[in-house]
Amino acid sequence: MSADRTPGDFGSRLREARERRGITLRQIANAMKISVGVLEALERNDISRLPGGIFGRAFVRSYAVEVGLDPEATIQDFMTTFPNDSVTAGHPTSERNDDFELLESDRRRAGTYLSLVAISIPIAGAVLWVGTGRRVREAPPPAVAAARPAPVQRAIEPVPPPALSRQPAVPTRVLPADTPAPAAAASAPERDGLAVTLTVKQPCWVTAMIDGRKTLDRLLQAGERQTIDVRREMVLTVGDASAISMTLNGAAARPLGKAGEVVTTHVTPNNFRDYLVR
Question: Is 220 helix (H, G, I), strand (E, B) or coil?
Answer without folding.
Answer: strand
